[in-house]
Amino acid sequence: MKNHLSKLIRPEVMEFKPYSPGLSIDEIRQKYKLDNVIKMASNENPLGTSPVVQEVIQKNASLAFRYPAAGNPDLCKAIGQYLNIDHQRIVCGNGSDEIIDLLIRVTAVPGRDNIVAFKPCFSIYKLQSRLCGVEFRQHALNNDFTFDWEGLYSLIDENTRIVFLTNPDNPSGHAVPSTELGRIAEKLPDSCILIIDEAYIDFASPVEEYSSLAPAIKSENIVVLRTFSKMFALAGMRLGYGIMPHFLADYLKRIRLPFSVNILAEKAGIAALNDQTFMNTTFELIANERQLLSIELEKIGCQVYPSQANFIMFKPPSNAWDIFEKLLSQGIIIRPLKSYGLPDHLRVSIGTVKENKTLIKSLKAILDEK
Prior knowledge:
Aspartate Aminotransferase, domain 1; Aspartate Aminotransferase, domain 2; seven-stranded mixed sheet; about 40% helix; about 15% strand; globular
């Protein structure tokens, strides 16, 4: 770029490193010339999109030329009814990523304020903080990937505006009871909010023990984030939401880009909330296969970490990156955790019964070669 043109770009943008998503099926199919590829890297629902939701999308496809209603009131009301909360506390977005970005923009002043989280964590917290010119502070998790609360507190000061927590956590799957998180919120400065990302809460059991929805409703400094990408199998529709105090919801609604949630995503989201059969089937599959897959991974010498999510983090007995690449060549995509600062670990999304068996068979063969 010519020097005079580079002056047009903000320093935060010049230094920005974009989000790195998991590899796609098409990429691996073309690279290795494979007919069949199994993707177990992005924590997607292994059952695919609900047939009920597919039918609703097809039925409403002719409405794609229309703008959705501003603020997606029907979707907010449906979420409110599903969770039994006031729908005016809900802000919907183009994935929960949009809500994360809005919360940072609304609360944190560039060059003055800071945001705190554990390390490792979901990279969007850090990326959007830095893009907004806000200092991002991190404290390492304990060696067993539990939360070091005292270490986290040591980073918080009068200029801390947000503390991010993911529960169940990513990439470990570790979860803590909501009562514990409620106590954390009570200790924060008055000008700080606790954002609890519950992207994987639907896979925790019992969900009532781990979800912070109840304390959030009683508090003025807790925000709960949720997504339609995991349990509801709508990752490609980009749909998420935040549950927050009324005053905060009002400010987010003021500054959000208009129509960020498209009309088909809204219709799909409402349909997904009403498809209890699909949710039950998904939960049962994930719970059963998570347990079985953990056992099988341990049998072949992997260190497996307890998970309340729809994925498992494990440490293989030999080089993690080599295993990742060999699985790729066989058409199995899992997630290496080098970008999380965990080069010796891997994360695998829970797949179908067949996919999980295929993974274990291939992984065992790779380890037997060592």
